[in-house]
């Protein structure tokens, strides 16, 4: 069934897919009929333990009953009004309560829209043009930040895409992650509107910040008058309710959110200091608008998800699952390798002993990782098909799921050593 759908899809979509990483599953992508808890159910009637989880949003697992119930209730009341709704106020209240940098919020429809808006906002606020980003950090598929990007961009050899004018890319400086020397040099010589980064890299595999890196950037941006933007599309509400900024105790000027705050429905958000956020229309002159901004379904899905997260079980279970599985993987691999884990998401790299930059991640043996991915699929375990993506765990990854996963990994890894 999946093979038939794949064959037909190539008639309709460029490369047969609507997002490039989906084409990385060989010999062809499996098509999903549904999901429940920690499992995907394919059109071929297979049940797969899922460590992709929609690339991060599904921290409660698939089709969590309380999220389903709340969304059904909203569907019966309607799903698009073109006017404000109560749910957007309630979701914003949660974000402002939990995210240290959030004084005001603007909802958009994706992480890409969130970073686009944050960059425009920083430029409007500072009156400057130049942006500084970090090699391997992925901030969505738009011109200003698709330069030396991570994830599927690197996987498919288009870390800097065709179609981006030189006039745009020339306004973007790129530094190595976990290195403060380059940012200080750039900021001291250029009028930089914003420094944007993933506080934990999640789009070159998982790469945590080294001690002093985030706080050092905070001090540098204050010194030189640049807006510090944390892209917490992945880490927001995954590293606890306060995200990476709460975890590492470094508060940026602006934060971009997505994924979890929509409960798996399309969403993005920019939040931050009141004096910056008030530059957005209609109170200011930095334009942003959208028919689907603060869509009621996404608002309700996100609100139901955060209410579940506030109970604490999802964090306890998902962290335990990631810890147990990553430690078993670490013990089972005999060749040089490294396992990077932050709380409830992780990735393993083969043929290297340290990964603290995108350059080091690219030096890993990606062909071996792909081999493991393919063998795990035969064991009914789904991990990301790209070395530069991330394994996520959820509330649904209980001890039974983890035990089954560990046994599958042991069978696969015995031939890799």
UniProtKB/TrEMBL annotation:
One of its GO terms (cellular component) is cytoplasm. It is found in: Cytoplasm. Pathway: Porphyrin-containing compound metabolism; protoporphyrin-IX biosynthesis; 5-aminolevulinate from L-glutamyl-tRNA(Glu): step 2/2. The modification N6-(pyridoxal phosphate)lysine is found at residue 259. It comes from the Archaea. One of its GO terms (molecular function) is pyridoxal phosphate binding. InterPro entries: 4pyrrol_synth_GluAld_NH2Trfase, Aminotrans_3, Aminotrans_3_PPA_site, PyrdxlP-dep_Trfase, PyrdxlP-dep_Trfase_major, PyrdxlP-dep_Trfase_small. Transmembrane segments: none annotated. Keywords: Cytoplasm, Isomerase, Porphyrin biosynthesis, Pyridoxal phosphate. GO terms for biological process: protoporphyrinogen IX biosynthetic process. SUPFAM superfamilies: PLP-dependent transferases. It catalyses: (S)-4-amino-5-oxopentanoate = 5-aminolevulinate. Its main location: cytoplasm. Its cofactor is pyridoxal 5'-phosphate. PROSITE patterns: AA_TRANSFER_CLASS_3. Belongs to the class-III pyridoxal-phosphate-dependent aminotransferase family. HemL subfamily. This is Glutamate-1-semialdehyde 2,1-aminomutase. It comes from Metallosphaera yellowstonensis MK1.
């Amino acid at each position: 069934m999946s093979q038939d759908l794949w064959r037909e899809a190539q008639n309709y979509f460029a490369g047969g897919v609507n997002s490039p990483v989906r084409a990385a599953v060989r010999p062809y992508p499996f098509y999903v009929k549904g999901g429940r808890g920690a499992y995907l159910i394919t059109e071929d009637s297979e049940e797969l333990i899922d460590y992709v989880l929609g690339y991060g949003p599904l921290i409660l697992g698939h089709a969590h009953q309380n999220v389903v119930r709340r969304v059904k209730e909203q569907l019966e009341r309607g799903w698009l009004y073109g006017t404000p709704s109560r749910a957007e106020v309630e979701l914003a209240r949660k974000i402002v309560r939990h995210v240290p940098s959030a004084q005001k919020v603007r909802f958009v429809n994706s992480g890409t829209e969130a970073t686009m808006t944050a960059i425009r906002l920083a430029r409007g606020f500072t009156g400057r043009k130049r942006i500084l980003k970090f090699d391997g950090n992925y901030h969505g598929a738009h011109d200003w930040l698709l330069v030396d990007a991570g994830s599927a961009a690197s996987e498919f050899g288009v870390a800097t895409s065709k179609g981006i004018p030189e006039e745009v890319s020339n306004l973007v400086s790129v530094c190595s992650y976990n290195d403060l020397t380059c940012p200080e040099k750039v900021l001291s010589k250029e009028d930089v509107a914003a420094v944007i980064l993933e506080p934990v890299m999640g789009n070159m595999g998982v790469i945590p910040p080294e001690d002093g890196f985030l706080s050092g950037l905070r001090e540098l941006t204050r010194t030189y008058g640049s807006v510090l933007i944390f892209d917490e599309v992945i880490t927001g509400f995954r590293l606890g309710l306060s995200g990476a900024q709460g975890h590492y105790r470094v508060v940026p000027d602006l934060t971009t959110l997505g994924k979890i705050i929509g409960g798996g429905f399309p969403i993005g958000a920019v939040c931050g200091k009141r004096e910056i956020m008030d530059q957005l229309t209609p109170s200011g002159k930095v334009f942003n608008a959208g028919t689907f901004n603060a869509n009621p379904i996404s608002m309700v899905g996100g609100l139901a998800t955060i209410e579940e997260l506030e109970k604490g079980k999802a964090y306890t279970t998902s962290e335990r699952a990631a810890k147990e599985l990553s430690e078993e993987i670490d013990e089972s691999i005999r060749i040089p390798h490294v396992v990077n884990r932050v709380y409830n998401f992780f990735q393993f790299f083969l043929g290297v002993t340290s990964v603290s930059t995108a350059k080091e991640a690219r030096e890993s043996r990606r062909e071996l990782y792909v081999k493991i991915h393919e063998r795990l699929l035969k064991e009914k375990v789904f991990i990301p098909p790209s070395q530069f993506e991330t394994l996520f765990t959820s509330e649904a990854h209980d001890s039974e799921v983890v035990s089954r996963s560990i046994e599958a990994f042991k069978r696969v890894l015995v031939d890799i050593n």
